Amino acid sequence: MVCCLGAVGFAWLMISAALAEFWAVTQNNYLDYHWVGPEWAGPELTMRGLTIVFLMVMFLQVNSRALPLKNPDVKINHFLVPVLMLGILAHFSACLVDQYIGPLERKIRCEVKEPSLKLLHEAGPPMYLGFLIHVFLHFLIMQTRFGGASGFHANHELTAPLLPSN
């Protein structure tokens, strides 16, 4: 289910990147970016799409419940998981602003008349943001388990019976 959200977001980003590149080639300065030139909108969206693929593979390969239990002594995970979480959160924030306020959005809303592309354009951004939130929460679960890893994996209160047997 989560990868379905990511796949729709990926399709939306790749089509938006293709449209941005097409407009950059055919119409000079079609977007008014103050800090990034219009020719960079397509590669930026392409890199976001590749990020989705990376996050989907990572989401499918990393078990949030088993990793802290099986690898409690791997100290690099205490650094990598929060860094990945903050990167996903920053990516979410940037996409949230770009997807609903950016000049490319206004251009796509005005120019695209195909019903299937309009549907993808309407469904893609919320599904992509939902995917990012879900992946962020996936790694947040891991981080909270790493935080209590010293007592969590060896915590006998979770497996001990409520009443001792005689």
How is this structure best described in words?
It contains 7 helices and no strands. The protein has one domain. With about 170 residues, the protein is mostly helical. It is elongated.
Secondary-structure blueprint of this entry?
Layout: H1 2-26, H2 41-61, H3 66-70, H4 77-101, H5 103-111, H6 115-147, H7 149-152
User: Structural class of the secondary structure composition?
Assistant: mainly alpha
Count of structural domains: 1
**Cα-atom radius of gyration:** 21 Å
Largest sheet: none
**First-to-last CA distance:** 47 Å
Uncertain segments are 149-163
Q: What is the string of helix and strand elements? A: HHHHHHH
Count the beta strands. 0
Count of helix runs: 7
Shape: elongated
Strand portion? under 5%
Report mean pLDDT, rounded to a whole number: 76
Helix proportion: over 70%
Primary descriptors:
mainly alpha, 73% helix
Compact summary:
The chain is mainly α. 73% of the residues lie in helices and 0% in strands.
